[in-house]
Design a protein that fits this description.
Structural class: alpha/beta
CATH topology of the largest domain: Alpha/beta knot
Helix content: 40-55%
Radius of gyration: 19 Å
Number of strands: 7
Order of helices and strands: EHEHHEHEEHEHEHHHH
Number of helices: 10
Number of domains: 2
Strand order of the largest sheet: 3-2-1-6-4-7-5
CATH superfamily of the largest domain: SPOUT methyltransferase, trefoil knot domain
CATH architecture of the largest domain: 3-Layer(aba) Sandwich
CATH class of the largest domain: Alpha Beta
Length: 244
């Protein structure tokens, strides 16, 4: 599971960061990424909870934004309780674990966890290919950060054990996040230029496209074809404007 990163977005408590390190060590993961941490991840509280996993605190990589943390990832799953209109994109932890494990067999994958008090913002969820939600009681739906990480990593470890017993099905290699995000930006500009998107709220439609493409699972060839489509739209629109 060396190709699976655990990404914590703006973690607020050293106790939680330390606890996450211990959970990661329990399940054999070592790639911890912290996005704009709001506390000292090398402080006494974090070290106390990490116990024998304090080495993960030392090796944790710090990033200014989630986009930067996911730049080398071909696949990422965001944890959230906010269903919105994309309920069909939500996975149960066991299904999320299987998809993450399969993606990690072809490239870098990441499990993304939000802030203790506010979770992941909509713009951050846009960067994730899939979503996972942990079934809990409606009266208290949100779990502690370290507990949520423990549940997800347990499912990944379970899926890894099952895959080792069955052998794996070959999966095509996904395009890295950087390539996909560049394609989405080109798509935004091309569709704005032809008037397909509402200039005041282009993300409303773009998020639907993101979900469609995320379910399909884009590889590098897919991204190249889509970039070609947007380039063709750019050319057609340019010719139309020349003719007035």
């Amino acid at each position: 599971m060396a190709n699976i990163a655990v990404v914590l977005v703006e973690p607020q408590g050293g106790l939680n960061i330390g606890s996450v390190c211990r959970v990661m060590a329990n399940f054999g993961l070592s790639d911890l990424r912290l996005v704009n941490p709001q506390t000292d991840h090398l402080g006494d509280e974090a070290r106390r909870m990490a116990v024998k996993a304090s080495g993960l605190l030392e090796s944790a990589r710090i990033y200014p934004t989630l986009a930067a943390a996911l730049a080398d990832c071909a696949f990422s799953i965001g944890t959230t309780r906010r269903f919105g209109k994309y309920r069909e994109d939500f996975l149960h932890p066991d299904a999320a674990a299987r998809e993450t494990l399969a993606a990690a067999g072809q490239g870098q994958a990441a499990l993304v966890f939000g802030r203790e008090d506010r979770g992941l913002h909509t713009e951050e969820l846009d960067l994730c290919r899939r979503f996972v939600t942990i079934p809990t009681e409606e009266s208290l739906p949100s779990m502690n950060l370290a507990q949520a990480v423990a549940v997800c990593l347990y499912e990944v470890a379970l899926a890894a054990g099952e895959a080792a017993g069955k052998g794996g099905k070959r999966r095509r290699k996904s395009a890295p996040t950087q390539s996909v995000e560049a394609m989405y930006e080109h798509m935004r500009q091309a569709l704005l230029a032809i008037g397909y998107l509402d200039a005041q709220n282009p993300d409303h439609i773009l998020r639907t496209f993101r979900r469609i493409f995320a379910r399909a699972g884009l590889n590098e060839r897919d991204v190249q074809v889509l970039q070609g489509l947007w380039s063709r739209l750019d050319w057609v629109e340019g010719e139309r404007r020349k003719k007035g």
